[in-house]
Amino acid sequence: DVKVTQSSRYLVKRTGEKVFLECVQDMDHENMFWYRQDPGLGLRLIYFSYDVKMKEKGDIPEGYSVSREKKERFSLILESASTNQTSMYLCASSPGTGDYGYTFGSGTRLTVV
Amino acid sequence: QKEVEQNSGPLSVPEGAIASLNCTYSDRGSQSFFWYRQYSGKSPELIMSIYSNGDKEDGRFTAQLNKASQYVSLLIRDSQPSDSATYLCAVRWSGGYQKVTFGIGTKLQVIP
């Protein structure tokens, strides 16, 4: 089975800190995604990547950046954490060819205080 | 703005009944549709995908797609308490990077 691993299950950070959320997948998937999930708003796409070194903005990229230096790793960066970035962050991956759904990581619950 | 609409519920059904979960979407050109199940405190997991009009069955699950009405549904037969979860509808848009948008999910409660 594809495994998508997010490095932290829970994180508490202070306002203004730079925060790194790491995601690693072990099935050689080309496509990787970062979503945040909030009650009443559902899953919203932050950034995605279809190849190494490639990144594209999703629907809510403001305040975030990403890095994909290796195919298996996709990092989400909060440049200066704010309280409105308190959320559940979900990483997902999918194969590059064919029409497949996503495999999600277990999520990181980030609280910014 | 491309939208995916779901009733947030909760939808309550008795054990053994058929649960019917519905989803509408705004982009007529969409080609790919997915259902995910999300247990409380867990991440979503893919349970069904459907690409053509009609029904697709997998065990107790049936996905139904009607592109003319821009409507996709998930039927769960012989509902079990273990089916209690939030069900997310997802649509892959046509064109561009073919991004996927998720609905807010319908919470299903199966009552023993």
Walk me through this protein's architecture.
Chain A contains no helices and twelve strands. Chain A has 113 residues and is an all-beta fold. In chain A, strands 2, 5, 6, 7, 10, 11 and 12 form a seven-stranded mixed sheet that branches. A three-stranded antiparallel sheet of chain A has the order 3-9-8, with no helix packed on it. Chain A has a two-stranded antiparallel sheet with strand order 1-4. Chain A is globular and about 40 Å long. The model of chain A has no long low-confidence stretch (mean pLDDT 93). In chain B, the strands form two sheets. In chain B, strands 2, 4, 5, 9, 10 and 11 form a six-stranded mixed sheet that branches. In chain B, strands 1-3-8-7-6 form a five-stranded antiparallel sheet, with no helix packed on it. Chain B is built from no helices and eleven strands. Chain B starts with a strand and ends with a strand. Chain B is globular. At the A-B interface, strand 6 and strand 11 of A face strand 4, strand 5, strand 9 and strand 10 of B.
Q: How is this fold's topology laid out?
A:
The complex is a heterodimer of chains A (113) and B (112).
Chain A lengths: L3 E3 L3 E4 L5 E3 L1 E3 L5 E8 L3 E8 L6 E2 L6 E7 L2 E6 L8 E8 L8 E2 L3 E5 L1
Parallel strand pairs in A: 2-12
Antiparallel strand pairs in A: 1-4, 3-9, 5-6, 5-10, 6-7, 8-9, 10-11, 10-12
Chain B lengths: L3 E2 L5 E4 L4 E7 L6 E7 L6 E6 L3 E5 L2 E6 L4 E6 L8 E8 L7 E3 L3 E6 L1
Parallel strand pairs in B: 2-11
Antiparallel strand pairs in B: 1-3, 3-8, 4-5, 4-9, 6-7, 7-8, 9-10, 9-11
